[in-house]
Amino acid sequence: MKTLTLTSQYKIQRIVFLMTLMLLAGIVLAPNSWAAGGPEQGTSMEQTKQKLAYIVSDLRIPFWDIMDRGIKFSAKTLGYEVHTYSAENNAKKELEIVADAIREKVSGIIVSPTNSSACVTILKLANSAGIPVVISDFGTDGGEYVSYISSNNQDGAYR
Fold first, then answer.
1. For residue 76, what is the domain's CATH number?
2. Is 104 exposed, middle or buried (0-12, 13-18, 19+ CB in 10 A)?
3. CA within 20 to 30 Å of 18's CA: 25, 69, 117, 134, which one?
4. What share of the chain is helix, strand, coil (3-state, %, to 5)?
5. Residue 15 domain-assigned?
6. Which domain range does residue 122 map to?
7. pTM passes above 0.85
8. Based on the structure, what is the number of domains in the chain?
């Protein structure tokens, strides 16, 4: 996977857009996804609007708020609805949110995990439900995902 560096708000917006596109590509390619069968004949775009879950470690941190707004904007322009959930830096709460998103049968998950070890369990749960995942920033200690996008915080601090 290619790692990208975020050093400005413009780059953040571009990355968020690319991240959303990668997630949507994963949804299209995922065998259990909506796209595998396509919409039924005679259904409108509104009836088939897909939901994505953005699960973030802590939405009170300004960086994650910017990411949230960018993801929602990009997804909306592509016809997707995003529901954002903040784990408030609590790995247990994060797993509860993932379980809820799976029960809601979201089409895809974008996760900025509380830590890389907790992300392994998130990926196992989502994969067992056939839900594609894009990881943003922290990464994972293992598991299958559509894409991983990170920021270079040290480089960003000096620009």
1. 3.40.50.2300
2. exposed
3. 117
4. 45, 15, 40
5. yes
6. 9-31+49-157
7. no
8. 1
Length of the chain: 159
Residue found under tokens 């040290």 = 154
Q: Reduced to 3 states, what is the DSSP secondary structure of residue 100? A: helix
Domain assignment present for residue 43? The answer is: no
**Tokens 């895809």, residue located:** 108
- Buried (b) or exposed (e) across 70-91, using 16+ Cβ within 10 A? bbbebbeeeebebebbbbeeeb
